[in-house]
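Figure 2 data, in text form.
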Amino acid sequence: MKLVLAHPPLDDPTIPYHSTAYLAGHLVKCGFEAVSIRDTNVELVNWCLEKDVTESFYAEAERRLQHFEGKDGLGFVEQEEYFGLWSNQTIGFDELARSVKRMRDPEAFLDFEDYKESVSVLLRYFGFLGSLSYPCEIAHFRQSTRGRYSPYHLRDLFDADLGARICQVFGRFLDERLAADREIGETDCLGISIVYDHQLFHALHMARWFKSRWPEKKVLLGGTAISQLYKYLKDPLQMKRFFTLCDGIVVGEGETAICQIADAGGEIPPGSKVQNLITYDAGRDRLYLPQHIHYEDVPALGRPLFRYPWDLYLSPARGINYSPTRGCYWNKCTFCDYGLNTAKPTSPWRERRIDQVVDDLRHASEESQAKYVYFAVDVMSPAYLDRLSDAIHDACLDLHWCAELRMERVFSTERCEKMAQSGCVCVSFGMESGNQRILDLIDKGTKVAYMGETMKNFSDAGIAVQLMSFSDFPTETQAEKAESHQFVKDHEAYWSAGGMGTFLLTGTAIVAKEPARFGIRLIETREMDIVRAITYEMIDQDAEDNRKAMLTEDRDASFESDGGVFPVVFNRPWAGGTDTLHTMIYYRTYGKRFFRENPVVNPASRGPESDDELLACRLFLPGLVRESPFDIRQIVGNRQRFADYLEELSHVPQEPTLKVYDEWCSLIAPVPKGAGKLGAWIRVEQKCVPLDRLVYRLLSLGMARNCSLSELLGGLQEELRVRLLGYLRELSEHGLIELKPPRLQGNAALGWIPSAGLANSSASLERGVTM
């Protein structure tokens, strides 16, 4: 039996996820050699960066734009798709290729100004691909719904037409690249490991595509996202809907299950006794669910095999995710809700022997040439970490690593120094709160009184400290929330980066099981089949804004927010994001304070004061300048109306599904086409302002020539020049353009988009600018 284990899009393209490495490793240990690992996520990313592919995507975008601009008016659905396409302009292939090359070049990667520019180019390009996949969008290599459909409603999740639209780019990759792939075509069984919710639609689309081409072959689904879906599904019997796309579903840990399936030659009869396996008898309409969830004996597992296409990852150095332990040794936090354990917040604590870990890491380093390791665990106990640090140091593994830890008092100066000597470059702490009452309500088991000392010990050892916290835990007061902010400020000498999110209540957390104990009342959300996030209200509050829920597709993304107390950095998977490979490389090279001293967004600098200084400035556009036959302000206004509607839904509460979206769209009047001529617009984030033709041409010319305002306006009459300078200053004050004095001109604005259709010279500028 030939088996392919696939990691689906969309996900981090800088480092491979390790679930398939563990499955393949245990298969090989058990004697099954015909197993291959395919990271279809990074394969897709690289395919999208090929010259002919990029050109075909831009040609498709232009065709769609012309189609929309040929209409007399646009309904709201058309407005949304048009606006997404209109908001992106072509990135030249050379610029795109240069950005990819910088990501892989050890020296260019470490030039942070170049790095930021490369990130900007990649984000803009893949954001553009998202606009081709309406009604989804793509940001930081995550597919997001923007409230237009829901992965937590089965009607949307299994809508094949919706899946084809939002996975359009991936669909082309499957048809044009994987369909002719010999390894894929010859496999007997495709196993798709789905780790994150934002991979669900791509994973199901891949399963549907594979089954349509090779209906006789087996498809297995597994991974954390599928396990969580099974856990939160209101009616577990609805798991049978997956069996139009697959032959079996593994929930929970899957090493034993995949070996048992391989041992049976890939045959998966309904009612099979394979551990953690769901099967379905279509003839009898009978679903077979696991009688209990099996947790692996971690020391008995095979060594993970990191057989990935290393040259495809967007990083100058190789890194791996590795799990020496599973579960949580504390396992008491009242908000935690992970894994399929029903009696405790997460899976039971298990350890791999230290000698096995050293052997695993040595083989992984030799096999992949990886020098960075993220210990992808819930948490590691101080005692285990102490022994592991000694072993890594004694084995001279020459690795740099990072891990998530509890803020335990036992992390003394000596222990922290030992970790640093073994290669630790950064650690992440789930601080949660800086208020002791809230920590006790969480049952965190930590004390505010010694958290600062623990942070200091790590910082003094040269290890970067990343803090993760959240606000709005049930019954938290404004004063208690302020204490968390103050704690962060009071200890800013010891942390390197962090995020402060908003509390999210999930389906089977202790808070959800015992709501009255936490002063809340649970509220059922309409149109939600998979109850991952729970809406609730405070029992003792009467305020209108009392209900708490996050009805967006990226429910956990709020924890990447700076919360107004941390420096602004890139989100995952980029440098500055918590626990990323790029972040580890930067800490290793420049030290723990790098992102404190080099935030992505620099503090506001003093702008030009005198007219002479203003004339010496150069123009930079942080957004977009472009023409359109439609009133872009009206389109933006309708988009804001939809955002307001989503806010209303969150208070009902009701999950925003595709049906709800379509019904709302039908109530919005079309935006008519302008009478005979194109309008010019400047857009920066949510700001969108019409431009006079003269100003539009001036901005376009300024960006094309990269010259000073003095050179740009030199051929104009004095009166017009004065008026234009005043107008440009006003645009600058509203954040629509940037005017960089000579002292700052080495730092271009992040993410400006050059405009097409430029005038030939300033002498050709028309008179009569409106201001």
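Caption note: The chain has a mean pLDDT of 90.
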